[in-house]
Specification:
By secondary structure, this protein is of the alpha/beta class. The chain is built from seven helices and seven strands, in the order βαβαβαβαβαβααβ.
């Protein structure tokens, strides 16, 4: 029997490399997968690959409160339950502390912290009802901030704080919360980062999106007697 048969799972940033891999993996395991991102066309293409019409799209911009509320209302109205949320949406701007713009910081804060925070707030009653799970896809920058990524790293440190507080507040209601800190992963975002840094992009040497999806599926499949609070995933080949 598929591990997630009868489960409904929301994946944000579902049109990105990690998000798409997550959708495909969870769909293979029998889940009804709700896909969200700003790219409606790409969401439709990915959802079509989830068997038996179990891929359902809810396009939304996490930074737009009205659009977010509308997407959540429609999703909760069309699905009997919500068993898990996997937060994959994120953006990054590279620059040094001396020259980085406040506008770039604001954009990253809105997408990487406030968006997931607000979405979790809106979905919390449904997650408590199902004794569900929340997984935040974080970054190694959420552990240690290297040069040139102070703003992005700050948002990822903040996202860890959100996860930690949520866990303390909701564990008693049966809701489990995990932060997954990723190292360099073979995605279009990573390709763009390496291009800006004038570094070689060799995707075969990095974590694969399917590796992340496999780890998330393992966390979600744990019986309710156990909780994974934090995981660090690093490429074996340190590119």
């Amino acid at each position: 029997m598929a591990r997630f048969s009868g489960k409904t799972i929301l994946v944000t940033g579902a049109s990105g490399g990690v998000g798409e891999a997550m959708v495909r993996r969870l769909g293979e395991e029998g889940a009804t997968v709700c896909l969200s991102s700003r790219n409606r066309k790409r969401l439709g293409e990915i959802a079509a690959g989830v068997g038996q019409q179990r891929g359902r799209i809810y396009p939304a911009d996490l930074t737009n409160e009205g659009a977010l509320q509308e997407a959540v209302q429609r999703m909760l109205g069309e699905n009997e339950r919500l068993d898990a949320v996997v937060h994959c949406a994120a953006i990054i701007f590279l620059d040094g502390v001396a020259t980085a713009s406040s506008q770039d910081f604001e954009k990253q804060w809105q997408t990487n912290v406030l968006g997931p925070f607000r979405l979790t707030q809106l979905l919390l009653p449904a997650l408590i009802s199902s004794r569900g799970q929340v997984i935040f896809i974080n970054s190694s920058a959420g552990r240690r901030a290297p040069a040139g990524v102070s703003q992005y790293a700050a948002t990822k440190h903040a996202l860890k704080a959100v996860a930690d507080s949520l866990r303390d507040e909701c564990n008693a209601a049966g809701v489990r919360v995990c932060s997954l800190f990723l190292g360099s992963t073979a995605t279009p975002m990573q390709k763009a980062i390496r291009s800006q840094q004038k570094r070689t992009y060799e995707p075969e040497r990095l974590i694969q999106p399917s590796d992340v999806a496999e780890m998330v599926a393992a966390v979600l499949a744990l019986p309710p007697t156990a909780e994974v609070t934090e995981l660090d995933l690093r490429p074996t080949d340190k590119a």
